[in-house]
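Mods, move this if it's the wrong board.
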Amino acid sequence: MKRNNLIPSALAFFALTAGAVQAAPVKINFWEQSPPETGAEIDKWIAVFQKSNPNIQVIRQHYENEELRTKFLRSSVTGDGADIVSGPNDIAGVFATAGVIQPVDGMFKADMFNSKSLDMTRIDGKTWGLPLNEGNHLILYYNKDLVKNPPATTKDLIDQAKAFTNEKQNKYGLAFFQSEPFWFVSFLHGFGGSPLQVNGKDVKVTIDTPEMQKALQFLVDLKDKEKILPKECNVDCAKSLFLSGNALFHISGDWELSTYAEKLGDKLGIAPLPVITETGKPMAPMLGGLFLYVNASTKGKELDATRKFLQYLSSKQVQQRVATKLNKIPATIEARADASVKNNAILNASAQAAANARPMPPQVEMRAAWDGMRIMVQRALSGKETVAQAVKTGQRAADEALKGIQQTPGKKPDTSAAMPAKAG
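Not the wrong board. Structure tokens:
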């Protein structure tokens, strides 16, 4: 009798044990490089997701910009990398070339997203990153107490800026990060140029061009001829001049929207970058955003859980919070059409400023272009070289950087200064 009673008890025990094993949550490692406020918001998303999906555990880890790239590239060898890693679109080419990520085509419905967003990580016909938001573009900021009508053209901007500038009083008509190519490339696009020529798999860095020379001359003239720029000014200098009322116009990214809105309130003016008077073409900043990349080694139940989490991040619920809590343009068409987004004055102004923006090229060659343009701009602005000499120096520097990229695809020149880490 005792023996017969033990058998069902033992079977029940093993059944319970097996159930416990089956119920063990699938773990997803998620690495990000976002500012603290974004990380705190992501934690809220994760909490809601896990409540609805108790069998999936998402573990978020924060790393700084370059640390995340390096660690994730190394993880392809050690096998202990994240299942999902977030970052700007310009790392897509690095990760895809190194073979550490897998295409996300098939993990989502393409018609959910703005096609421009998807193009930002599309290389050789494959989409490598799922967009979480769209942005990282430059905006023309101004103080409504000082400016009645924002300039539509560069002639108008220069006229208003010259009337305001007074070097003795440390007042300037325009302030921005002069020596960084991420700012300069907006001028380049306005003159009809591009730092890359992409024809399928054939990608060329194009710095020594007439368009590049005209754009660089225009930048140098703003400082030396029109005298509306400080002699030297980095991102902190430009921000300080604007917030103190000593810069009439200020060019910076959408990552400053929340800070400027908090400090200036209703006085904050936001406008698209103006049209280049000489060409009739608008200054066009680079457009990026925050993208989610999937580890090439993630398979099986971890991949299924990863897909589910990515689909959740694309939901209207999360995308609305991307807009309202982070002041970022949501990636999905559905969220953009929602009243909470359409009625947000700051987001609408940001979206208008992004309308002329060009997607940041995801190809690894863009990193060589950044290196070449950075040297070119710095030498021209400092007066060490003429504009004609500087574009040739920039091309040579880019060609050298390109050789390094082609020889060691896992190690790329850093462009974190050109694409601020906090922009995500």
